[in-house]
Amino acid sequence: MNSNHEKFTALKAAFPHTIPILTGFTFLGLVYGMLMASKGYGAGWSLLMSMVVFGGSIQYVAVTLLTAAFNPIQALILSLTINARHLFYGISMLKKYSGTGKLKYFLIFALCDETYSLTSTKEPPKGVSAKWFYFWITVLDYAYWVIASFAGGLLGSLVKLDLEGLDFVLTALFVVLFLEQWREKEKRIPAVMGVICSVICLAVFGADNFIIPAMILLAVSLLGGKSKLSKAYHLEKTSEKAGDDQ
User: Where is the signal peptide (predicted)?
Assistant: First the structure.
């Protein structure tokens, strides 16, 4: 297959999966850029932060850090705490990204919550290059955030709005991604396990500290039940294939 055709085919296959991310990132990025502008940081700063940091939650927190007294230790600890979940993302994606060559560096850098939700659950269609499929999902999500942040910075210098409550868009985005997983029968058990682990850790550790314990509990649960989940997945696929053959 021609290299350019291979890339374009993968792009066409990847784009529809990123539409929910486009919707969420558009609103969140615009709000972030406008918030930066309201604190005296122009669109260029929003663009630079999104391109280099590319961490939605920590970027919102960084708005406060930039306007407060400089405390590098606090900033470091806060950043590590908020983004520690990416350690689990990265470990779980090692096998899937093993054949991506030099693309792996960008895939690692730009792996965020939403991109992980897609690349960990979506498989490329038959005949589509896996590495380019995951690459385009990652590039598109990255571009949505960067462009929206820059546009928000430009808009924020012209329009003054009350931004309170608009960050709920992120919650709505994850609801959509959860429903997408729920539509696939073989993904329902891990989805339910994720909800149960989150609820347990929320009750035990509280709203400010439950994310990392929940991810550890979920990782242990999934690893412990890996064989059973694999069997259930293969049985489901075998059943679907038998139905198609008939």
Answer: none
